[in-house]
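The following record pairs a protein chain with its ligand, NAP.
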Amino acid sequence: MRILVTGASGQLGSYLLRELARQGNHEVIAWSGTQTGERFGCKLQPIDMADLYTAGSCLFEVKPDAIIHAAALASIAQCYCEPKKAKVVNGYACFELADIQAAWAVMIVPRHMCRMVMVSTDLVFDGKHAPYREDSEARPKSVYGRTKEMGEGLALCYPDVPNVVARLSLLFGPSLNGKPNFFDQQVAALRTRQPLALFTDELRTPLDYATAARGLIELAESDYTGILHMGGPERLSRYEMGLKLANALDADPSVFVPTERNAVPSPEPRPRDTSLDSSRWRSLSKLQLPSFEVGLNEMLFG
Ligand SMILES: NC(=O)c1ccc[n+]([C@@H]2O[C@H](COP(=O)([O-])OP(=O)(O)OC[C@H]3O[C@@H](n4cnc5c(N)ncnc54)[C@H](OP(=O)(O)O)[C@@H]3O)[C@@H](O)[C@H]2O)c1
């Protein structure tokens, strides 16, 4: 297949490129937002998703068999500060891609079927009714969650276009793109013994980046359509995750300071428990879906 990865320069996108390079059986086209250079044998092509016309024209030229759409304004704080940009990048861009897929699907000559795996988030939920299933009602509490929910609806708006919305939970693992992420900060805190506050009362079903990447590629290759929840098997707070990380590194866990969410002011309410029920994914996938500890070990030592 010819697979287009958007957001290929991001945290998740880098794992997608690495996994696709390892598998070696697909032609890969890698779109970034702004970054250039080469990653895992792929040239990053900067395409601004906020420029819908250009993004659409470029998609038309590439004509992939599948799109793994991971590009997003993925920071809750940035979405809050730039809600209009978040609406375009996280929302309308999904329509632009789906609209071109729909045009290909109805053309008589040359007809071209292309499917999209739109990467979404557990933060489309309000945190009051976990664990959430695919048919649970989305009630986002942040600009980020609202714009991602909007993108979900637009990605699935054409019944004849075989798209998937993959809702991921909190992802963890070291950065592969040179921009340290929260996991890297926790490892650094343990190594330098710098105290770091971790929330005890925000619960997620965390999943390691490598498994998320394998799952998304498997979905792109499958014929599943609709929404699919892809979370890890355990419901954990960031503090509990931190303790498991300290244990895996044989480091002093007292570096992590247990902290309640409301001790840190935030402009938007944060959902308390957005744990995903991922039993459908577990029954459909042929992958070995790891426990949190096994995923953590792969991320640290694999
Ligand atoms: N990380 C998590 O825990 C998590 C959990 C659930 C769901 N997700 C979803 O997973 C996806 C990837 O997240 P991530 O953590 O990898 O985020 P990230 O590291 O911030 O990466 C975002 C990617 O999107 C690109 N991008 C941003 N604005 C763009 C624009 N205007 N046009 C084109 N591309 C643009 C960035 O490109 P440049 O850097 O080159 O500008 C980058 O490649 C997102 O859809 C996010 O909602 C993430």
